[in-house]
Design brief:
Structural class: alpha+beta
Low-confidence stretches: none
Radius of gyration: 25 Å
Number of strands: 7
Shape: elongated
Order of helices and strands: HHHHHHEHEEEEEEH
CATH superfamily of the largest domain: START domain
CATH class of the largest domain: Alpha Beta
Distance between the termini: 79 Å
CATH architecture of the largest domain: 2-Layer Sandwich
Number of helices: 8
Strand content: 15-25%
CATH topology of the largest domain: Alpha-D-Glucose-1,6-Bisphosphate, Chain A, domain 4
Strand order of the largest sheet: 1-7-6-5-4-3-2
Number of domains: 2
Length: 318
């Protein structure tokens, strides 16, 4: 309480930067503890922390002080920007991951700032208690989230190929080098397939789908020639290389996005054509699922499109 009362003695500029600095320190320590201490990328990090950034900076700045709504929003997002810059400068995260998290972070900071602004006009003695409760909830949420097992989900992409199933099959089990991608998403560090090789034939054969970051090792579990190829994923590389000035090896690059199995299904169509469907079953330990699954499904569809288009091109060559 004494610390907050000292805010009253500061001039306007010092008061702003004091509020920002304290919030950055609190949010930074909570984030580091959640990521490296608990090993959790979840609601605590992506929802509660940006909310705290907006709420805490506004509450501190507005404590026994008259501020406007625009000032509350300004200080919240300046604080968020400084926290984000710190993630980049201290090589904790790369630009692409930050860009992916930005929409939800900006919205939650805005909400936190508005609620902080509303409460700052009413609260005085209870302000420290509310801040402490919110701060305590964040690591508690991380501990709870860490015990929740992720659910397996699937993504299916399809394409029609002007070739018979057996011709397509030859290009499904393995395929030659793909051209450099033109899609922007693959120029940001997201891993993409470059070729596929197979060792053996039938169930038990080992397929290697090679990406820019390494190889997916895929033991075949179903070999129905010309109809269905199904495989598990025994090993997988990092899903991306962080776009950064530093060589970042963030924890979420390992065992947070996990591909479990996949398949190619071939269906014979009229006029000698084939419907080829590629499916990936995966889970990720990054929450909230409703937000991050949009990103992961989008990326997997893009990977599927790249592979299926390549198979189509090779199968239709005369």
């Amino acid at each position: 309480m004494k610390l907050l009362d000292n805010l009253i003695l500061l001039n306007e500029t010092k008061r702003k930067w004091f509020s920002i600095t304290i919030t950055v320190i609190i949010a930074g320590l909570l984030s580091l503890f959640g990521i490296y201490g608990i090993g959790e990328y979840g609601i605590a990090l992506f929802i509660l922390t940006p909310f705290l950034i907006g709420f805490c900076s506004t509450i501190l700045y507005g404590y026994k002080n008259i501020i406007t709504k625009s000032e509350a929003i300004w200080i919240g997002h300046i604080t968020l920007a400084i926290c984000t810059l710190a993630l980049i400068v201290f090589a904790i995260e790369g630009l692409i991951c930050i860009a992916m998290a930005a929409p939800i972070g900006i919205i939650l900071t805005w909400i936190g700032s508005l609620i902080g602004y509303s409460l700052s006009k009413k609260l005085t003695t209870s302000t420290p208690s509310i801040l402490l409760i919110l701060i305590a909830i964040i690591p508690l949420t991380s501990f709870i989230e860490n015990k929740i097992k992720p659910e397996l989900t699937s993504v299916t992409t399809s394409i029609i190929i002007n070739a018979k199933p057996m011709e397509v099959w030859k290009n499904v089990i393995e395929f030659p080098q793909l051209n450099e991608p033109t899609e922007f998403i693959f120029k940001t560090g997201i891993a993409y397939p470059i070729n596929a090789k197979i060792i053996g034939k039938g169930v038990g054969a080992i397929r290697h789908c090679n990406f820019t970051t390494g190889s997916f090792v895929e033991p075949v579990t179903v070999w129905n020639e010309g109809k269905l190829l199904k495989f598990d994923v025994l090993e997988q590389p990092a899903p991306m290389k962080e776009l950064s000035f530093w060589n970042i090896d963030a924890p979420h690059l390992h065992d947070y996005f996990v591909s479990k199995k996949g398949q190619f299904k071939l269906t014979k169509l009229e006029n000698g054509k084939t419907l080829l469907e590629g499916t990936t079953w995966y889970y990720h330990n990054i929450k909230p699922m409703f937000y991050w699954q949009v990103w992961s499904d989008f990326i997997i569809h893009k990977i599927h499109d790249r592979v299926l288009t390549h198979i189509k091109k090779n199968s239709e060559q005369k």
